[in-house]
Amino acid sequence: MIEKVTMTEPVFIPVDPDTGEPTRWGDLGEANISVFGDFWRCRRAPEGRGKRIMALVLEDLQAELREAGRLSDVTHVAYHPSADAYQISRETVMEAGDEA
Fold first, then answer.
1. pLDDT digits (tens, 9 = 90+) for 8-39
2. Residues 6+ apart with CB under 8 A from 76
3. Which CATH code, of 3.10.20, 1.10.10, 2.30.30, 3.40.1350, is assigned to 11-99?
């Protein structure tokens, strides 16, 4: 069974500050873009450094990917749902074992 991916709203896409276009990458015949579910993860990702961040609701992203949209050449979306790290205090870590 394939897991269904649910995208958050809005989604964040790093774009070139001059053209407003996302960076496309991939093998021959592919055009991939990176899409993030978290603003700060988008800003800190290598794809986001030095870029503007475009925020879109899912319906607008879908419209951009349709035939007439400016992302109509995109074949895949690399979706990064949310932050993958949390900063917590030392005290919180030390107390975690005491709760059991």
1. 789 999 999 999 999 898 999 899 999 999 99
2. 26, 30, 31, 32, 33
3. 3.40.1350
CA–CA separation, 99 and 83 (whole Å):
26
pTM across the whole model:
0.76
The pairing of strands 52-56 and 11-15 is antiparallel
3-state helix, strand, coil in the chain (%, to 5): 25, 20, 50
Q: At 52, phi and psi to the nearest 5? A: -80, 160
pLDDT at residue 61 greater than cutoff 70:
yes
**Sequence letter at residue 2:** I
3-state secondary structure at position 13: strand
> Domain limits of the chain?
11-99
